[in-house]
């Protein structure tokens, strides 16, 4: 399961950066186009966090909407699929945002 390995690396990174402190809150950014399901991450996070410094931490997930730039007319548009189409009719888009998956913030006790 894709989400399980992601959740596992998030827990590992947080536990390492906490340097022995307990992690209270983790904020994750998940791009809408990253094909990662936030609910699955949430479930796997709790499983992976067990018996680590991250156990019991609150997981906050911020979903970043997809955004692309049209290479034909230069417009920026919101996209909810990796291959959208610009209002000018061009499908020549460059994704700007929405594919990321990163730890935005972490709070330790
Ligand atoms: Zn365009």
Briefly characterize the structure.
The protein has 109 residues and is an alpha+beta fold. The chain has a domain at 2-65 and 98-108: hypothetical protein PF0899 fold (2-Layer Sandwich).
Low-pLDDT parts are none
* Bound ligands, named by name, code or SMILES: zinc ion
**Gyration radius, rounded:** 17 Å
What is the CATH architecture term of the domain at 2-65 and 98-108? Answer: 2-Layer Sandwich
Mean pLDDT: 94
Q: What multimeric state do the chains show?
A: single chain
CATH fold-level label of the domain at 2-65 and 98-108: hypothetical protein PF0899 fold
The helix/strand order is: HEHEEEEE
Largest sheet: 3 strands, mixed
* Backbone structural class: alpha+beta
Strand arrangement across the biggest beta sheet:
2-1-6
Number of helices: 2
Task: Bin the helical content.
Answer: 25-40%
Give the CA-CA distance, first to last residue: 31 Å
Share of β-strand residues: 25-35%
Give the number of DSSP strands.
Answer: 6
Defining traits:
three-stranded antiparallel β-sheet, 6 strands, 26% helix
Blueprint of the fold:
Layout: H1 2-17, E1 23-31, H2 38-49, E2 58-64, E3 67-70, E4 76-78, E5 93-97, E6 101-108
Parallel strand pairs: 1-2
Antiparallel strand pairs: 1-6, 3-4, 3-5
This protein binds zinc ion.
Residues 70, 72-73, 75, 86, 88, 90 line the site of zinc ion (ZN).
